[in-house]
């Protein structure tokens, strides 16, 4: 069975800290890995990764994929209270499915 | 562009009642999806569609039905509501098979 596992389940940090969120996967026909941020409502897209070792960056957020070890990390530097959210990892398979992990709950304290 | 819209935002149903959750997108996306999200869980795919007139089951289709008569609309039908269907329902659409845009969600409670 295809699965996506995220860790940690939750964490609490202080503003200014750096955090690393993990996503490991076991899927039959890997196509892409996506990160979403969910604040109360709908998930919003952050990154899509398809190639190993190529870092994607957007401001203080960055992500990288390791297709050999089947995992990805999402880094957030200089965290702010506005980064508090659930971060979802999803793996796209050949076909039309995204398989989602349970998410990591991040709380940034001021 | 309104993006992906969903109605209603909230709904309480009694066991055995039926309802339709509406979803519409104005981005001319071919792909549309319905997910449910239970507390502490990721999103589970219920049904998806790759274009008007074409639908297929996802991971958890039991108790639901869909139709796709137009590119814009993708309603989800619950025929006999059960407490296990209490959840938050998200509709999403995409141009390609990957990056999906989500609607604001419908919070459904079945009592």
Verbal overview:
The complex is a heterodimer of chains A (about 110) and B (about 110). Chain A is about 0% helix and about 60% strand. Chain A has no helices and eleven strands. In chain A, strands 2, 4, 5, 9, 10 and 11 form a six-stranded mixed sheet that branches. Chain A has a five-stranded antiparallel sheet with strand order 1-3-8-7-6, with no helix packed on it. In chain A, β6 (about 55-60) and β7 form a beta hairpin. Chain A starts with a strand and ends with a strand. In chain A, about 35% of the residues are buried. The model of chain A has no long low-confidence stretch (mean pLDDT about 95). Chain B has strands at about 5, 10-15, 20-25, 30-35, 45-50, 55, 65, 75-80, 85-95, 100, 105-110. In chain B, strands 2, 4, 5, 6, 9, 10 and 11 form a seven-stranded mixed sheet that branches. Chain B is built from no helices and eleven strands.
Q: Let me know the average pLDDT of chain B.
A: 94
Helix content of chain A: under 10%
> How many DSSP helices of chain B?
0
Order of helices and strands of chain B: EEEEEEEEEEE
Question: What portion of residues of chain B is helical?
Answer: under 10%
Strand content of chain A: over 45%
For this structure, the quaternary state is: heterodimer
Average pLDDT confidence of chain A is 93
Structural class of chain B: mainly beta
Shape of chain B: globular
Unreliable parts of chain B: none
